[in-house]
């Protein structure tokens, strides 16, 4: 039996949850959830000047909206600093690390001389093999003893084997002169202590892997499986930036994209399962694997995102969609939803969700159900309500009074009425749209009548025809 899979997402809380970070979190979540494993969350808040509680909350909110639930408590890297230092001191005691007393001026002088002589500028400390008896009473950093010969190979599930010559690795600092641990040490110790089996992260961390592996090997810890995923680019092939559009997950939430559609689209951004574009969470968890991740940067395509989101809105259960849309509307102060409006919105949902790609689009189509009398009629729609049209509506209204309130009956009555006036129904539809919704682009007039009910329909027609 294989060991349980443990993945992690480890963002730095310096702002919003970036769309690239969200995809990294999603890949880790899918990999763990699809294998009955654990998905852990660690906040890398060691940079105290840039880390803020607000940014941490923004990350948690973004993940909650995306539906990426994590196991166990959120781990603060800063809180674990004593443990990180403990590992450095253990390596020091075992002779796998050493105290370096070199000043910044001495290090700079070494690099200047190396550059002038055409040698590697990687600092080689004279303190690496110095007798502890010769140590001065002065500030020092703790450096790991990097291997000097041979090569280090990162066995990466996405990038393949990546080999770095060991003479390209310096004796990395583990503890600063004030005793605080560096990021590289903190990450390696945390990943080991958290039992992380798979490190799935952006390929901008690929070189870090070789340095973190030095700590693993010096401590005799088993290495995790690495998978470094390419970054996301904009449609123009350049690194995703603000000029391409929204970067933060909460911006997509506020624009009214459904979380399920966002998950689907982000999963396909750099990973593929045959030609499948549209899939459910259950399918994504079942299908997702590291072999399907491409080596090239993915390109963010807003049209594809909208298309996928539209398909997810269309298949969402009406009650669940009503819940999500109303939560969005309230959060964005779009509308105040009374019980009557909620009831109408629910009744209209089967028609509204067919072609809406975002929640604002759906709410826009639902305008007729959410509007209140007297209906505010747009100029273009008002042109449909000339004297003749109002007279026709005035004649139609009493006939609807006694009609059976079903689509078939209303449609048959309206068609028969149009024929009696020697007109095509299309000629009648324009004034009906204007009267019922105050607009020229609306759902089917019969769908609107059924949603509004007999009483509200007749009242709106009376208002428009001037009979009220």
From TrEMBL:
<dbReference type="InterPro" id="IPR008925">
    <property type="entry name" value="aa_tRNA-synth_I_cd-bd_sf"/>
</dbReference>
<feature type="domain" description="Aminoacyl-tRNA synthetase class I anticodon-binding">
    <location>
        <begin position="340"/>
        <end position="464"/>
    </location>
</feature>
<dbReference type="InterPro" id="IPR014729">
    <property type="entry name" value="Rossmann-like_a/b/a_fold"/>
</dbReference>
<feature type="binding site">
    <location>
        <position position="242"/>
    </location>
    <ligand>
        <name>ATP</name>
    </ligand>
</feature>
<dbReference type="InterPro" id="IPR000924">
    <property type="entry name" value="Glu/Gln-tRNA-synth"/>
</dbReference>
<keyword id="KW-0648">Protein biosynthesis</keyword>
<dbReference type="InterPro" id="IPR004527">
    <property type="entry name" value="Glu-tRNA-ligase_bac/mito"/>
</dbReference>
<comment type="subunit">
    <text>Monomer.</text>
</comment>
<dbReference type="GO" id="GO:0005829">
    <property type="term" value="C:cytosol"/>
</dbReference>
<dbReference type="InterPro" id="IPR045462">
    <property type="entry name" value="aa-tRNA-synth_I_cd-bd"/>
</dbReference>
<keyword id="KW-0436">Ligase</keyword>
<keyword id="KW-0030">Aminoacyl-tRNA synthetase</keyword>
<dbReference type="InterPro" id="IPR020751">
    <property type="entry name" value="aa-tRNA-synth_I_codon-bd_sub2"/>
</dbReference>
<comment type="function">
    <text>Catalyzes the attachment of glutamate to tRNA(Glu) in a two-step reaction: glutamate is first activated by ATP to form Glu-AMP and then transferred to the acceptor end of tRNA(Glu).</text>
</comment>
<dbReference type="InterPro" id="IPR001412">
    <property type="entry name" value="aa-tRNA-synth_I_CS"/>
</dbReference>
<dbReference type="InterPro" id="IPR033910">
    <property type="entry name" value="GluRS_core"/>
</dbReference>
<dbReference type="GO" id="GO:0004818">
    <property type="term" value="F:glutamate-tRNA ligase activity"/>
</dbReference>
<protein>
    <recommendedName>
        <fullName>Glutamate--tRNA ligase</fullName>
        <ecNumber>6.1.1.17</ecNumber>
    </recommendedName>
</protein>
<dbReference type="GO" id="GO:0000049">
    <property type="term" value="F:tRNA binding"/>
</dbReference>
<dbReference type="Pfam" id="PF00749">
    <property type="entry name" value="tRNA-synt_1c"/>
</dbReference>
<feature type="domain" description="Glutamyl/glutaminyl-tRNA synthetase class Ib catalytic">
    <location>
        <begin position="5"/>
        <end position="306"/>
    </location>
</feature>
<keyword id="KW-0067">ATP-binding</keyword>
<feature type="short sequence motif" description="'KMSKS' region">
    <location>
        <begin position="239"/>
        <end position="243"/>
    </location>
</feature>
<dbReference type="GO" id="GO:0008270">
    <property type="term" value="F:zinc ion binding"/>
</dbReference>
<dbReference type="Pfam" id="PF19269">
    <property type="entry name" value="Anticodon_2"/>
</dbReference>
<keyword id="KW-0547">Nucleotide-binding</keyword>
<keyword id="KW-0963">Cytoplasm</keyword>
<comment type="similarity">
    <text>Belongs to the class-I aminoacyl-tRNA synthetase family. Glutamate--tRNA ligase type 1 subfamily.</text>
</comment>
<dbReference type="InterPro" id="IPR049940">
    <property type="entry name" value="GluQ/Sye"/>
</dbReference>
<dbReference type="GO" id="GO:0005524">
    <property type="term" value="F:ATP binding"/>
</dbReference>
<dbReference type="GO" id="GO:0006424">
    <property type="term" value="P:glutamyl-tRNA aminoacylation"/>
</dbReference>
<feature type="short sequence motif" description="'HIGH' region">
    <location>
        <begin position="11"/>
        <end position="21"/>
    </location>
</feature>
<dbReference type="InterPro" id="IPR020058">
    <property type="entry name" value="Glu/Gln-tRNA-synth_Ib_cat-dom"/>
</dbReference>
